[in-house]
Amino acid sequence: MRDELLRNPVFAMAATQFDGVADFLGLNDELRERTKWPKRLITVTVPIRHDDGTVRVYFGHRVQHHLTRGPVKGGLRYHPRVDLGEVAALAMWMNWKCALMDLPFGGGKGGITCDPRTMSVGELERITRRYTMEMIPFIGEDIDIMAPDMGTNEQTMAWMTDTYSTHAGRLVPGIVTGKPLSLQGSAGRTQATGHGVAFLACRALNKLNLPIDGATAVVQGFGNVGAHAAYALSNSKVKILGISDVTGAIWNDGGIDTRKLRDHVAAHGSIQGFAEAEPIDPAALLCQPCDILVPAATDMVITGENAPLLKCKVLAEGANGPTTPEADAVLNERGDIFVIPDILCNAGGVTVSYFEWVQNLQRFQWTEREVLTKLETMLESAFSRVLHFSEKHKLPHRTAAQALAIKTVADVKAQRGLFP
């Protein structure tokens, strides 16, 4: 199983990052092994009947990296490229993210290898409900709490809530987060990750003594994270020069009106054809001059090849694992780009998911203002701790963030000991 995981390039990247931090921390072999490898790797078959009457079997995965500090927390994605290694890497990163934000969770991640864009609403509901039933022995509001991710949304979470609650014989709202407000979801959850990305990007500009009003940004990805990051940056008077999605990329030297683009995407399904911007090559988009670059799509898009060509001042990682170790080496050597690492930059989603979980357990709802204020307070605290640790030990921001997180998990494992 180890070799199988390490053959996956995303997990191999996460493992390389871990090994480097473990060396810095001086973890002994026992703690290193116990902290690195996931506790549970679950794969199930998910057979569903399609609208045309045919039956197809899909594969679904869930990885629970550690339950040492509490139940695991993490998203569920639907995508054609989902596999166990990718899910395991994302669960590992989520573990460090929760530890860095001081949330009482371990890291989890799930996914089904499917293409939701080709499936009807009925087919999506059936695949979601069947996957939930297959996972019932392994999930619970004190065991594993899922949330939306790539290809899933609050409707997916509503179906999961209903399936689990029907099995339990009572409403269990804390089984997932990212639910509709009518099902005891949390105000502020939808925009939480993107809001956090924008908040930290502006804090980075503050640290660099650069003005926010009139700053420029490029956003790769116009899904939930990228779109809300773009909206929030625009609200802070940052000019959005370029945006991409799976269909292509667009550019406007005068700035893109993100609200108009949102309406265009709602009407046409993609950014293609937006009248107030010109097409640009998606690869070239990443290397355009700007103050803030937000990779908010998929992993491994900042590579050893394009890292020397970046012309941003702040790299705000909205996606998980967007920067490869080879690119990190280039960026560290350059020293002229302020990197906000993924486990900090996109932690807004899991932090507000934590708030939603707490509200569900308390049966008490917070206002959007309360949620976003608490989120910014926690992000500011983590941001300050990472910068202080980085400066104290002369480490890159990513290494500093991961070192703080991994040490937190390793210390708890050492304190709990090893059950015979």
UniProtKB/TrEMBL annotation:
Residues 186-417 form the Glutamate/phenylalanine/leucine/valine/L-tryptophan dehydrogenase C-terminal domain. Keywords: Oxidoreductase. One of its GO terms (molecular function) is oxidoreductase activity. It comes from the Bacteria. Belongs to the Glu/Leu/Phe/Val dehydrogenases family. This is Glutamate dehydrogenase. It comes from Luteolibacter soli.
